[in-house]
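note to self: the first set is below, dont mix up w the second
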Amino acid sequence: MSRKIQIVLSALAVLSICPTMSFAKDETTGGKMSTASTQDIINTLRSKGSFHKMLDGLDTAYNLDNTLKGKGPFTVFAADDKAWSKLNQADQDTLFANKKKLAQVLSYEVIKGEKLNSQALGTMASVKSMEGHEIRLSTKDDSDKKKAGLYADKARIKTADIQCSNGIIHIVDAPIMPPLAE
């Protein structure tokens, strides 16, 4: 057997035993993100390591984390810790001290019953959140690549289409907020 054929067969053997993974660019680190398609949304966020604030909120807000471990499908606009830091600390403390408002904000970041990739979102003007209000969707063409792209309300989707067993995650550069009740 020729050396080239042996190399090709070896490569095919390695590929056949590797688990199926989805890859997306992680703009917070500049590297690749990988998510096993068998992980649910919560475990995918946990495996990324930079979603502590959101995960703490989902746990605090009437166990929304258990909802996102469920069957789905869900589309989640996930704000990482860097995105949450765009809100001043006093506003974060007030929000996290009020479970009802926190649940309202975090359920606004979820679309229940649909797994919408970035291509589908790009064709829509808005989508109804699990919280009940509409999330405005838009695209911006800009010479500054940090401003161009797909937006959910005023937050830019910086990493899209992270596949999970029960849905899809889009990482946004700021938490998206519904109109909050008094």
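second set (the one i keep forgetting abt)
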Amino acid sequence: MGEILIGTASWTDKSLLGAGWYPKGVTSAEDRLRFYAEQFPLVEVDSTYYFPPSEKNSELWAERTPPNFTFNIKAFSLLTQHPTKLDALYKDLEVASDKKSLYPKDLEPKVVDEVWDRFLSALVPLHEAGKLGAVLFQFPPWFTIGKRNRDYIIECAKRCAPLRIAVEFRNKTWLTPDNQQETLEFLEGHGLPFVCVDMPQGFVSSIPPVVAATADLAMMRFHGRNAEEWESGSVQKRFRYEYSDEELREWVPKLGRLAEEAKTTHVLMNNCFRDYAQKNAKELADLLSELR
């Protein structure tokens, strides 16, 4: 069985900071990251989806964490074809648009190339420190199965090399019974990790809880099961879900099978409301210890 790393999708979420999870006196950015890294071996940085990271932050993250700590970085919204706020782009880029939200098609190719280059350059310190796990490409609900989008996934992987990417879908067409095998074989053929998910079902963005390793790195993200608020438009409401012991236990054998297929498995709790993710990550880690 391969190594299983468990962590959460944030260590600075506003509701977490007010939940009392951090000990008294742990208030600086440095102290919080150091404390988090004492609890978990893995974290996912989601803030980079909203604003691209800086090389300085990557340097600080590498300095403030133990040698074997791992960061997964969520790709900037523009790179996954999501709408991107104009004020989230690098200020010195020449953007000929008065739109508040932009897509890659709204920008000159040279501007898009520059965003790619700067985003990836900012991750070099983490990569050189051996602390970069994968760049998470979570594609939008309108990113349907098809040759054009498969080609774009391959383009993303090539642009990021030697950094590796992991692929998460948010459109159900990729994992229908008719398409599931084709999708998994496509990812495996290009050595790209498929991101398994636990999430509310019944929506266009719903991906079934398919457990599969398509590379030597496997990845699992728990989004909670708050179906009532899944399309509310509020991130806080969407992920306000605490897994029960029974719900976590049902995933233990599945994660065990995943770890048998991969060299390393990353398990991320993305139910980031107050300290729900941190509690569930600890509980799941204890349950998974039974597999050893």
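remember for set 2: The first strand starts at residue 3 and ends at 8.
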